[in-house]
Amino acid sequence: MKKIGILCSGGDAPGMNSALRAVVRSAIFEGIEVFGIKNGYEGLIDGSLVPMVESSVADIIQKGGTILGTSRSERFTKKEGVSQALNVLKVYGIEGLIVLGGDGSMRGAYSLYKEGFPVGLIPCSIDNDMDYTDYTVGFWTAVDTVTDAISKIRDTTDAHNRANVVEVMGRNCGDIALYAGISGGAESILVPENKADIDDIARKMLMGKNRGKRHHIILVAEGLGHAHEIAEELQKITEIETRVTILGYIQRGGSPSSVDRVLASAMGNVLVKKMIENDENKALAVGIRNGKIFTEDFERAFNRKKVFSKNLYDIMKIVSI
Ligand code: F6P
Predict the structure, then answer these.
(1) Nearest CA among 49, 57, 56 for reference residue 18
(2) Which helix (H) or strand (E) holds 103?
(3) Where does ATP bind (predicted)?
(4) Other CB atoms within 10 Å distance of the CB of residue 155
(5) Which of 66, 80, 86, 116 is most buried by a 10 A CB count?
């Protein structure tokens, strides 16, 4: 393998730039040329490629977003889009493609692999919704952002003796709510994987109020939705004034945390090395499990259904009584 391409796809995640930097520099170290592809699979179809050198990725390890740009490409879900992308890769003489993204991006990469093109994935998503890896790049930064937001929301909630229902991202995965709920000391969390009873939450609010608590933070994962309805219902049952905060895209931005920078750097380096060794041209997904960076083939990574940490959920319930 003498020339590889790299693109970002789907929702951006803090740490994508750190991963890009690691891939470009690791490839150059191994004597491989790298092309950056702008705006995800859209740019691949349109032939929007730029050569990357060591300095192309200077001063980006700390930057949120992605310097390459990203997209959710409708065209790439069609056969014609995939074959146009393959033409572009052929014209540029690119022999392998590294994709930075989540499960949707993985599906896209898989369609190239099905046509015999070697691909590799670095899991980048704030959602942490891929089971084959303990963590995706961007997740911990999003958790930090939500944790910080909870602290600020708690100040004003406490001042007014209120409750606040805070909706967080994560698509169908409740991990952001779970981890930020624990680290931010939320009173309750509502996630799609483990539907809590609204009456239980209301009871907890009233018990808290009786012992002098002046705030109640309830984190709701967006996959469950209905933050406004939940707030209305809680206010009706408890008569505690309940406000709503939808955190939204703030969770995707910002400088990546050191955990995400290290994860992205290690994953980028390991994947480049494995793609060079990978003489069977498998599609490789890099991940981390029990503290160890590993690669496994797409097929296996794909077929694993994300398991929610019931253990951590139970801990959350105990530490927030
Ligand atoms: O996958 C990351 C994510 O931020 C999800 O948490 C959210 O549901 C979705 O992307 C939002 O996507 P878009 O940027 O297309 O609105």
Answers:
(1) 57
(2) helix 103-114
(3) 11, 72-73, 102-105
(4) 11
(5) 66
What pLDDT score does 289 carry?
A: 97
| 46 vs 37: CA distance, rounded Å | 10
Distant-in-sequence, close-in-space partners of 156: CB < 8 Å, separation ≥ 6: none
The residue among 248, 305, 219 whose CA lies nearest residue 126 is 248
| Residue burial 85-99, b: 16+ Cβ < 10 Å; e: rest | bbebbeebebbbbbb
Distance CA 76, CA 280 (A): 25
Catalytic residue among 12, 46, 59, 127: 127
The answer to whether the beta carbons of residues 11 and 103 sit under 8 Å apart is no
Distance of CA 63 to the CA centre of its chain: 16
CA of 70 to the centre of ligand 1 (A): 12
What's the average model confidence in pLDDT over 20-38? 98
pTM score: 0.97
Question: What local confidence, expressed as pLDDT, does residue 281 receive?
Answer: 72
Cα of 48 vs centre of ligand 1, distance in Å, is 24
Token pair, residue 202, equals: 């209301």
Question: Separation of 171 CA from ligand 1 center, angstroms?
Answer: 7
Instruction: Return the residue whose CA atom lies nearest to atom 3 of ligand 1.
Output: 11
Instruction: Kindly report, residue by residue over 259-295, the tens digit of the pLDDT.
Output: 999 999 999 999 999 999 976 778 999 999 999 999 9
Closest residue by Cα to atom 13, ligand 1, is 11
CB–CB of 217/164 below 8 Å? yes
Pocket test for ligand 1, best of 103, 145, 252 (most atoms within 8 A of CB): 252
Tell me which residue of 21, 22, 97 sits closest to 56, measured CA to CA: 21
125 known ligand binder: yes
